[in-house]
Amino acid sequence: MTTPTVLFVCVHNAGRSQMAAGYLQHLAGDRIDVRSAGSEPKDQINSVAVAAMAEDGIDITANTPKLLTVDAVKQADVVITMGCGDACPIFPGKRYEDWELDDPAGQSIDAVRPIRDDIRARVRALIAELLP
């Protein structure tokens, strides 16, 4: 079986998609190829998202926001957008999901924790589906 590739997409690739990628990398290791990107990437990851992930023992400080490309979508088996209405290129045979999640941008750590926990639960369910 080939290693599935999952691409998480949000507008800025600075919060939700980075947290999801961090969880998937941490929980699945090398069993799933993890990528993330944004249509308008920020200069750096949201510091509150970094802090929320650190509370759960996951370090995403080395990650950087990346620009979403057609190639990134082509290479992915699963494309997950983060409730941001992103216009992702659509290719037949790919699995697409939209996770409706609040944007952590400008939020306090108390507001970001439930978003983080929701992402963690969704990532665990995704792993169970991809790696039976």
Shape: globular
**How large is the share of residues in beta strands?**
15-25%
Could you give a short account of the major beta sheet?
4 strands, parallel
Number of helices: 4
Termini separation:
12 Å
Count the strands?
4
Percent helix among the residues? 25-40%
Low-confidence stretches: none
Assembly type of the chains comes to: single chain
How many whole angstroms does the radius of gyration measure? 14 Å
Strand order of the largest sheet: 2-1-3-4
Structural class: alpha/beta
Whole-number average pLDDT?
A: 93
What is the N-to-C order of secondary-structure elements (H for helix, E for strand)?
EHEHHEEH
Description:
The protein has helices at 16-28, 47-55, 70-75, 109-130, and strands at residues 5-10, 33-38, 78-81, 95-98. By secondary structure, it is an alpha/beta fold. Strands 2-1-3-4 form a four-stranded parallel sheet. β1, α1 and β2 (33-38) form a beta-alpha-beta unit. Helices cover 38% and strands 15% of the residues. The radius of gyration is 14 Å and the shape is globular.
